[in-house]
Structure formats: structure tokens, C-alpha cells
Design goal:
Helix content: over 70%
Distance between the termini: 56 Å
Shape: elongated
Radius of gyration: 25 Å
Number of strands: 0
Structural class: mainly alpha
Number of domains: 2
Order of helices and strands: HHHHHHHH
Largest sheet: none
Length: about 180
């Protein structure tokens, strides 16, 4: 459908823009993540933080450097660009939409109102980022659920079972007719 061909690249532009920004300016993204981690650290009790294993525990405890966070921001940005490009050109659009929704969830979490007190301007910017991320996550989920007019898996399974039952009934009728004679 023509609408899908036009809408998918339009939706993909925000994801490409965010991904390229993370690739070009990873320190800014790392700063936002660091701020979110600091907010999380201030709200999670010490006993709970100590029990979180692996890289997440290191991040919560503040044992992750800004350079490591910048590397994660770059990788996240690259993944956004690749998935958005796939969506824009129509290559596996459902998969690309679901991947983009999954990749945008960390952006939503990072922009939740946790952490230090901010100026009114910083708070407004963070709220705008949160609202945009939630909105684009919803759009990506819609793309991921779009069947393009084709029957979904549930419909296909239901009709396959009905077809199999009809074949069995016809076979049983034929066997009954030919064995009685």
C-alpha cells in the first residue's frame, strides 16, 4: 500500500537522527545515562545494589567509566541507524519495527524523572525527550504489529486446524462408505 511506503521512511527519520546523534556525540548521551544511573543509585538501597550482578551492577554502583558509556551509546546509535534503515527501505519492516521499539525502551527509561534536581529548562528538555521516545516507541510497535492486510498467525493456525479436521472427516466418510459395501 502506498501509505505504508511513505509512512515507514517518515517514521524511520527520527530513529536515524537519534542514532546518528549518538554516533557523532556519544559523550552527551553518556552524560544523560550517567545522570540516570546516579538517580537510580540514589533510590536503590545499598543492600539491593550490592546484590545486582554483572555489568548492570557495575553501572548502578558507578564503576563504569564515561568512555564505556560513550561506547555503549555509539553501539546503540549504530543499531538504531541499521534498524531504521531497514524500516525505511521496507526490508523486514515488522522485525525492524519491533527492534526499534526495543532499542527505544532504554531511551524511555533514561529519561524517566529520577535523579538530581534540575533547572526548569533541563526538566522541560528531559520531559520532551521522554514524550518523544514514548511516542516513537508506540509508532514502532504499530509497525511491528502491522500485517499489511495478510492474515495473522492465529487466523492461519485456526484455519489450518479446520482444514485438517475437514480432511479427516472426508477420509472417515470415504472409509465408512467403502468398507460397508
Amino acid at each position: 500500500m502506498l501509505l505504508r511506503r511513505a509512512a515507514r521512511p517518515m517514521l524511520a527519520t527520527w530513529f536515524v537522527s537519534q542514532g546518528l546523534d549518538a554516533l557523532r556525540h556519544p559523550q552527551g548521551h553518556a552524560r544523560i545515562v550517567r545522570d540516570a544511573l546516579d538517580g537510580l543509585r540514589s533510590r536503590v538501597p545499598d543492600q539491593t545494589r550490592a546484590g545486582v550482578p554483572g555489568p548492570l551492577g557495575d553501572a548502578i554502583e558507578g564503576r563504569v567509566s564515561d568512555e564505556q558509556l560513550a561506547t555503549v551509546a555509539r553501539a546503540h546509535g549504530a543499531a538504531l541507524v541499521v534498524a531504521a534503515a531497514a524500516l525505511a527501505v521496507g526490508r523486514a519492516p515488522r522485525t525492524a519495527g519491533l527492534v526499534l521499539a526495543g532499542l527505544t525502551l532504554p531511551v524511555v527509561v533514561v529519561n524517566l524523572p529520577l535523579g538530581r534536581k534540575r533547572s526548569e529548562q533541563e526538566e522541560r528538555e528531559r520531559t520532551e525527550r521522554l514524550i518523544r521516545a514514548v511516542g516513537f516507541t508506540g509508532g514502532a510497535l504499530l509497525v511491528g504489529a502491522d500485517l499489511e492486510g495478510r492474515p495473522g498467525l492465529g487466523w492461519r493456525v485456526h484455519h489450518a486446524r479446520e482444514d485438517r479436521a475437514a480432511v479427516r472427516a472426508a477420509r472417515a466418510k470415504w472409509v465408512a462408505k467403502h468398507t460397508d459395501a
